[in-house]
Design a protein that fits this description.
Helices cover about 45% and strands about 10% of the residues. It has 10 helices and 6 strands. It is globular, with a radius of gyration of 20 Å.
């Protein structure tokens, strides 16, 4: 697996790997735009997938993420500048990730109607599948069915703990966010309709398997949480999960 923290990071990282090593890399993950140079390095067919998020919720979460992370490059500017969520959304005082889904899925530097159409077309025809953050378990089951993954158990990380829910944000602020992310909102609505259409063609066994996975993963998370309560947080630990397609067999913590 190779993780990209930002777009075009290929130029400083992956390109330095010998071709024979790049050939054996199985997964590329992270913030990768469709115009990223990494695509030029992949010589074989690959599965292409992404997880989408409601654009308004994403920007609200990102703003509070910045506030809660002293190590974030924009933290100092937002706090010292007393920049509000509404001001952040406009991008007038500090750069904000406007229409970021359209930018990444179109691979275009120009954000306009053409970029939106390209993003829609890519989502429909280029991606093996896509899912949604608020349908995460269901999305992971789609990934499992489209790949060679077994049950993809997971833990939640990098959550924004201290943030207001969208429902608690003033309506005028939400309107400002929406006005500055119209392309992403249209793309999200298109993606949701396409997703629902595709889900209708799936057999009922898929949804039973998803519910079973939710229960298994909940057990997995509870076991890890129980383990963590008895571990000194300053001491690193290694978590190894052993499972097959039928059940969560064992959790070994060292």
């Amino acid at each position: 697996m190779f993780f990209f923290a930002g777009p075009n990071e290929y130029h400083t990282l992956l390109k330095d790997y010998p071709r024979e090593i790049r050939h054996h890399l199985k997964v590329f993950t992270g913030h990768i735009r469709l115009d990223d140079a990494v695509y030029k390095s992949v010589d074989e067919p690959f599965l292409h997938f992404t997880i989408l998020r409601n654009p308004i919720d994403r920007l609200v979460s990102h703003y509070y993420y910045i506030l809660g992370r002293e190590d974030h490059k924009q933290n100092d500017a937002v706090i010292k500048g007393k920049i509000t969520l509404a001001q952040y959304a406009t991008g007038e005082k500090i750069s904000a990730p406007k229409n970021i889904m359209t930018r990444y899925l179109s691979g275009s530097s120009e954000l306009d109607g053409q970029a939106l159409n390209e993003a829609k077309n890519n989502l429909k025809n280029l991606f093996t599948f896509f899912g949604f953050q608020d349908k995460f378990d269901e999305s992971l089951m789609l990934l499992k069915n489209a790949s060679e993954l077994q049950n993809p158990f997971y833990l939640k990380k990098n959550e924004t703990k201290k943030r207001k829910p969208v429902q608690a944000i003033p309506e005028e602020t939400l309107q400002i966010i929406a006005e500055n992310n119209q392309l992403d909102i249209q793309l999200f609505e298109y993606a949701l309709a396409l997703y629902q259409e595709r889900m209708q063609s799936l057999p009922s066994s898929f949804f039973r398997e998803t519910e079973r996975f939710k229960n298994l993963n909940r057990s997995f998370q509870n076991l890890v949480e129980e383990f963590n309560t008895g571990v000194n947080s300053e001491q690193p630990f290694f978590l190894n999960t052993v499972y097959d397609n039928q059940d969560l067999r064992e959790i070994q913590c060292h």
